[in-house]
Amino acid sequence: MTPQGEPLVTLAGVSVALGGQSILTGIDLAIRRGEIVTVVGPNGSGKTTLMRTIIGAVAPTAGRIARAPGLRLSYVPQRLAIDPTMPMTVARFMNLPRRRDAAVVAAALDRAGLAGLQARPLSALSGGQMQRALLARALLNDPDLLILDEGTAGLDQPGVASFYERIEQVNRDTGCAVLMVSHDLQVVMRASDHVICLNGHICCEGTPESVSLSPAYLGLFGGAGGALALYRHRHTHSHDDGQPCAGHGHEDTA
Ligand SMILES: Nc1ncnc2c1ncn2[C@@H]1O[C@H](COP(=O)(O)OP(=O)(O)OP(=O)(O)O)[C@@H](O)[C@H]1O
């Protein structure tokens, strides 16, 4: 059993290139048992590539990734494409690809906030309930690390807030670490132990409080102070690591 606070996944100097293009450079990070880490960054900054690298779906071109022995990792995709005409209940969805104990399914649904909805057709779930069904499925293997890629895409503000509250509850109740991508800075700041601002490389990171005061963070998110600022990355700010912020295709307001 990994002791509390021990790194579950560690990246050292990880770089990734896709299609001959450098996507991530020199990423150093550790995700420790029980903590909530959030990655924020503009479109195309490499957030999904980082998640896919951590789960082992993308191989780094440089650097090292270490995973704790026996690590149980669950991945919650942004969304699931389901043919709405295909009849499938929540219970059947939870039992794919393999049959689970009914009590385990009930407990996972309960944790995800879908208690008692086993008989509900997936096509009858709201967007928020569908996200919770994906979360419930990810909780079936009692993960040490839960990875959520933009888990709130398509949800309205109350839906987003409620989903993150649920994630925090799962983190508190089960002690599983959470790594998530989010565009909602207000919620991120409240829910996270550690925030990483990504833009091909790590622009700044730390506790929500320290990141909110960092010049690199203010360069990324200052001014508008909301999600829109994510898309208006000014290139005049200084970076903690002194690296230039190049190679990403978002609006430049500098
Ligand atoms: N298989 C691939 N081959 C070539 N380039 C790729 C591949 N996958 C992703 N990319 C490029 O890598 C860059 C980062 O993509 P990624 O999806 O990781 O960014 P993101 O921060 O998750 O973006 P978004 O916020 O829009 O979801 C983009 O420029 C994308 O076009």
UniProtKB/TrEMBL annotation:
InterPro entries: AAA+_ATPase, ABC_transporter-like_ATP-bd, ABC_transporter-like_CS, Metal_Ion_Import_ABC, P-loop_NTPase. Residues 9-224 form the ABC transporter domain. Keywords: ATP-binding, Cell membrane, Ion transport, Membrane, Nucleotide-binding, Translocase, Transport, Zinc, Zinc transport. Pfam families: ABC_tran. GO terms for biological process: response to zinc ion; zinc ion transport. It comes from the Bacteria. Coiled coil: none annotated. This is Zinc ABC transporter ATP-binding protein ZnuC. The keyword Translocase applies. PROSITE patterns: ABC_TRANSPORTER_1, ABC_TRANSPORTER_2. One of its GO terms (molecular function) is ATP hydrolysis activity. The keyword Transcription regulation does not apply. SMART domains: AAA.
